[in-house]
Amino acid sequence: MHTTPVVKVLAAWLLGLMLVGAAFIATVSVLNARLYSPEHQVGLYLDALHDGDGGKALGLLNASVPEGANPTLLDGDALRRASASLEDVDVGDAREAGADRVEVPVTYTLDGVGTTTVFPLQRTGTEWGFFNVWRFEQTVLPLVEVSALNSLEATVNGVPVGLPGGSAALATFYPAVITAQYEGTYFSAPERRAAVTNREAPPPPLALATEATPELTQAVADQLHAFLDACAEQTVFQPADCPFAYPTNERLAGDIAWSIEEYPAVSITPSDGEWLLAPLRGSARIETRLRDLFSGAVREVSETVPFEFGAELQVGEDAVTVTPVVRY
To answer: Measured between alpha carbons, how far is 300 from 296 in angstroms, rounded to an integer?
Structure first.
């Protein structure tokens, strides 16, 4: 039986079409498994976090920002720093979670701690009728609350953030590490850190414990020393508006000289939006000569006089005012 040239041509075309079809099916299969896979969408989201591209990350995650939330952590340097410690990332295989739904587990270390986050996605249709379209299930970004004692600002992930009323709620992507601290001339607070690994478990609030800096303590001490030194310059038994005095019924028989033996230790604590000075305790020394009213005898006096007083403290951006409060 002879095969005509026409049949041979048709057979060749048919074989070619079958090969093309098989190649196309294989290509669609590969693209669906890679470029159009839910795992690929998760990888794109993680890359956007690493690049600090908040707009892209927000669109990929299919997330909304809570109303009134501070957006500082959602873009740029603050976002890049949030994912800087994200290492050893492994995007696992998608697992079925219902009709047209999957869950993609991602294991990683964040701030040195091994963690897994599961991202839910759903198939929303196809592109050009062949390629699956996967999209993260809609969500709302978690919030991290940052507060600072007696401060209206903090530094969060290296970026200054205002704290109206002493606190702010910042929206954040995940996984992420949030750091907060405050460093001013007169007050500072050590860094606090929190890891955000999913939407359902927001981190505990980052409450900054603001404390007086050595610069503030020294500025207060300098003013207290100047006040007490001025008191010691007065050559009377009871220096005016000062916390120490020397009561006596004897007559003065020489000059009076005061000196400060021990200056008060300075302790500054926060209270209801203000900074309070702890009671100030110290001692002065009086040197003089006194004559007894009855015998006329003169004696040398060199005595320690303990004292205690309070002071009001006002701290501005670049000025410190200490107002002693002396009660008799």
So the answer is: 13
Question: Is residue 175 reached through a cis peptide bond, with omega within 30 degrees of 0 on the bond before it?
Answer: yes
DSSP class of 70: B
Report the run of H or E that residue 233 belongs to, with start and end: none
Q: Three-state secondary structure along 121-145? A: EEEEEEECCCEEEEEECCEECCEEE
End-to-end Cα spacing for the chain: 132
187 burial (CB, 10 Å; 0-12 / 13-18 / 19+) is buried
Phi-psi region of 196 (alpha: psi -120 to 50; beta: other; left: phi over 0): beta
* pTM of the model as a whole: 0.78
d(CA 184, CA 317): 9
How many other CB atoms are there within 10 angstroms of residue 162's CB atom?
A: 10
pLDDT in tens, 42-99: 999 999 999 999 999 999 999 999 999 999 999 999 999 999 999 999 999 999 988 8
Encode pLDDT of 228-255 as tens digits: 999 999 999 999 999 999 999 889 999 9
